[in-house]
Amino acid sequence: MKMRKSEERKSKEILRLLPKDKTIKILDIGCGLGGVTNYLFEDGYRNIEGFDLNSNKINKAKEDYPKINFWISDAFDIDYSKYDLIYAWGSFYYMENVKKLLIKINKEMKEGSLLIFSIPNICSLNKRIKSFFGISPINEKVYPVLPLTFKRARKLIESLDFKNKEITSYHNDGILDFMPIKSLNSHIIVKLEKGTSIVRNR
After folding, report:
1. Separation CA 166–CA 193 (nearest Å)
2. How far apart, in whole angstroms, are the C-alpha atoms of residue 126 and residue 123?
3. pLDDT tens for residues 29-70?
4. What's the start-to-end Cα distance of the chain, in Å?
5. pTM for the whole thing?
6. Which CATH number does the domain 5-194 belong to among 3.30.70.140, 3.40.50.150, 3.30.830.10, 3.40.50.2300?
């Protein structure tokens, strides 16, 4: 299945954040149709699997990418201790109890493992433009949970026990890559390593 440009760009951004060791065990939370999961699989990360609550999407993912283990599950029913890296690229948009899930993942993750997730930035340039013209920057049907600002992202993770807490951003269409003001990018990226807490921004 051919990927959309935005999905390919998202996949490349995730790939940039991954460790070079391609033998690690990876979990894709809310994998949807499995396109991103397969992109990483084809790049050499063969020990990767994904789940989603949407049975139609999982069935399609199984059909399109039979070499990858996909299954139907709620994020709160997963044992996260088995993985070296866990990522949620888009799936947290739809969850109302993200903080509760982060606490569970944090508790179960093994020492040295990584968690990477992305959330829409409510203060991005495109959302500011929408607000200027009187258009709501939030589609409540798409985002039941409000997108974050950098301040909210820091608050969301400040109480969690992670050795490194790195917050950065990217723009999903590439148009604003030249911009030095990263707080205006469309998505906030949080990268967490299990252990004792040190917060970093870049």
Report:
1. 9
2. 8
3. 999 999 999 999 999 999 999 999 999 999 999 999 999 999
4. 35
5. 0.79
6. 3.40.50.150
